[in-house]
Amino acid sequence: MQKLFIDFEPNGQITLNEEQSRHIAKALRMKKGDMLTLTNGDGNDYGCQINGISGGLVTLSVCYKQANNSEPSVKVTLYQGVPKASKLEDVIQKCTELGIAAICPTLTHRSVSRPDEKQAKKKGERYKKIALEASQQSGRGIVPEIMDMTELKKAVENDESKLKILFYEGGGESLKSIIPQDIKSVSVYIGPEGGFEESEVELIKSAGGKIASLGPRILRTQTAPVTALSAIMLLTGNLE
Questions:
Q1: DSSP-based three-state secondary structure for 126
Q2: pTM of the predicted model as reported, rounded to 2 decimal places
Q3: pLDDT by residue (tens digit) across 212-231?
């Protein structure tokens, strides 16, 4: 069932905004009597029926409320070394579908792409839109937080996760030996093209980070986070 995110608790009869109404009526070609799901991130899904489409706006009636069961038991925050071109957009989309809780675009020594403040703000708005659309498509109960672009040192300082994992082509422990099935939160660090410098590895290790491997093959920067997140979800019972 089609899902939309809203910023209020739906009750009784409601009217969608112009953008959402256009998406429902024009892009999805839904009509009066069709059902869809609304959520505001409070842990519940609201089943709604379309009452009518008039003046470019869609009106709905809330038919039922039920707990959302699509969110994983583990909250994963991804600190992704900022890659070139549109690769980060792909990472955000795929990781949102897999259940990521938050993504922090992270500037490292080998990050080639270094947008100025104005460019970073524009990119951030684009990233949030991608996360929203991916959340709606995949039936998520929340939209992942897309943090502001941050230098690695500051990101590590602000990371309060008890379990920090750096995936490094230089090898490391097996993920299975690091991830307990009942873990509630974990931070994942992925380098950009070219990976992390040794000083950055030491920085994360000094903050309590563990070094892990994703196998003997070297993965691209946009492949590694999807692989890591899939493995974490499997090990914690969230792909069953």
A1: helix
A2: 0.92
A3: 999 888 899 999 999 999 99
